[in-house]
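Milestone 3.1: sequence recovery, worked example.
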């Protein structure tokens, strides 16, 4: 994972210093330090951390959510808060086919976090056809190299669908949010990573198995230098449910595996402090990286015929 010479690049050192400065400020603010690295660990490596459990509720009001989960940085599984969403009632792979979009999309191949960065281009329509033909459930492969429409800007592509979901529970306390879709076959894996914002992952169709690790355990997570955004083992198992949503507070490592063909929507939300200390430094890093001034291994570029090609 080490790109020789990259760590000594002056800009790398400068940004690393900046990140350290922000980390110190974070610590002063009693937040988890910002490092922006994914980790190198496979789920089968059992970490010797006790299972701390997770709160599970049917519903929650905004005030309790703010106090007991956002401010307390504690995850929460919500079982009945998306029952009346139009997404839960109406979205399916056939529904997405009926939208007749042939826009190009980028598909992740395999676990790009801990594995090789691989992606390919397809048309949305062709991908949906391919998904409809897929078996409903996982064939038991641990890490399938199946194409995954991950971090899909679903409401840029289908603005009319934004009213089908409702993340007010989180967004009412934030100044910025970003909502993305995750459409894929059974067996996709999004390896352990953390997000620099509070996240709600809503399972619209199919099942996913999610493992969470608290930020307190970050020193046991073998942080990788691979570039991407974003840890007791509290095991959250969504195996037998869909129509549920999981609150993943900022800084909690998560590993997600789809057990069925699956449609999810996640909503990442930031407060002002997050914009200044998380989003902006990450943007600067991304710009430097895109123009080649931070040429480390990443989840967004591949080498094709010796050329660095962006997703
Ligand atoms: O559903 C997935 O595969 C990954 C979701 C995720 O990591 C996120 O919302 O941050």
């Amino acid at each position: 994972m080490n790109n020789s010479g990259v760590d000594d690049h002056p800009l790398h050192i400068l940004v690393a210093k900046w990140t350290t400065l922000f980390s110190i400020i974070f610590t002063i603010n009693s937040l988890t330090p910002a490092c922006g690295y994914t980790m190198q660990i496979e789920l089968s490596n059992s970490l010797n951390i006790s299972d701390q459990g997770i709160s599970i509720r049917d519903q929650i009001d905004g005030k309790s959510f703010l106090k007991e989960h956002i401010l307390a940085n504690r995850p929460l599984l919500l079982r009945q808060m998306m029952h009346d969403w139009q997404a839960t009632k109406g979205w399916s792979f056939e529904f997405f086919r009926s939208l007749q979009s042939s826009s190009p999309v980028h598909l992740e191949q395999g676990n790009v976090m801990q594995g090789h960065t691989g992606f390919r281009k397809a048309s949305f329509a062709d991908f949906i056809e391919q998904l409809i033909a897929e078996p409903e459930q996982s064939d038991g492969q641990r890490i399938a190299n199946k194409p995954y429409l991950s971090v899909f800007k679903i409401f840029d592509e289908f603005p009319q669908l934004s009213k089908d979901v409702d993340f007010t529970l989180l967004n009412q306390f934030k100044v910025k949010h970003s909502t993305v879709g995750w459409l894929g076959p059974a067996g996709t894996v999004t390896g352990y990573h953390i997000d620099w914002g509070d996240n709600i992952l809503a399972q619209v169709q199919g099942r996913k198995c999610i493992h969470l690790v608290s930020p307190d355990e970050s020193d046991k997570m073998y942080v990788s230098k691979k570039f991407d955004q974003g840890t007791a083992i509290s095991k959250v198992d969504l195996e037998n449910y869909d129509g549920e949503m999981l609150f993943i507070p900022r800084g909690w490592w998560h590993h997600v595996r789809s057990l069925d063909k699956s449609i999810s929507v996640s909503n990442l939300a930031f407060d002002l402090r997050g914009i200044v200390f998380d989003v902006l430094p990450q943007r600067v890093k991304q710009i430097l990286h895109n123009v080649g001034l931070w040429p480390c291994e990443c989840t967004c570029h591949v080498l094709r015929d010796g050329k660095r090609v962006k997703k």
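DSSP finds eight helices and 17 strands in the chain. The chain has one domain: 37-272.
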